[in-house]
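User:
I study polymers; will you set down one protein's sequence and backbone structure tokens?

Assistant:
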Amino acid sequence: MNLPRLPIEKFDENGLLQAFYVNRFSEHLKKHHSDINHPHKHDFYLTVFFEKGKGRHDIDFTSYPIQPNSIFFLQPEQIHHWEFEEEAEGWIFFHSEDFYKLYVTHFELFQWPFFQSRDSNPALIVNENTALILQQRFTEIFAEYKENTKHSFLKIASLSQLVYADLARIYSDQTSGSIQKNTLYQNHFHRFVKLLDEKYTYQKNASFYASELAMTTKHLHRICLSCTGKSTSQLIAERLVLEVKRKLVSESKSIQEIADELGFDNYPYFHLFFKKHAGETPKEFREKNT
């Protein structure tokens, strides 16, 4: 049982390996149905806009409804799968991080609220006016993609930035709640998330990350609360649980082997840890999701 990880090169249609792809959703589904019809993950950032359709979109073991004017944002390594009750249509585009860095020099991907962290809500609903604007933007992006002239990808990057900017405003309004974020905290939080992704199998204490980031544990806690509403320890635990879930459904290794890989020397503790945070045992989760 190995979950497919689809590289962006698999979708390269023009032979230029520009690490960008855009298409009508129905055409995308038709061309790549055999690859994307089952749970899978990517090595790129993806945005899909549904103009019509009804169904369910599962992202990292959480289900979201697919409906007209719904939008989804996916980050690399997220496991996802969709099922449709009614025929879906819309637009899809995705790109690598390198593509973004090549054409956008003044803004980091993590600064968009929907790509800030794994805790960012991946779903959004827009009104009809915004939907019309998005249809125009995607149509223009698609035309440039097909034309593929000398400066097409520079224009595509600019148009993609406009899509992100339009959606970021709405996203922030819909998800802000009582959590206030500032740029300095966001930058510190991004550094924490990157460090956590590198070290979570070896280091599970908040004090380690605070020390590595040259700040007090209390200050890191304050940053995490400001950006996500969650404590540092909670974010560390959630990162571990997410990786356990991904391995349980995508790898054929035993639960004991997975526990060992993720730095849990004490198997009974691993079992209790997972059940506490996931609400079920590793075995129950695997049986339900495979």
User: Anything to note?
Assistant: The mean pLDDT is 89. The radius of gyration is 20 Å. Residues 152-175 form the longest helix (24 residues). The chain has two domains: 5-175, 183-289.
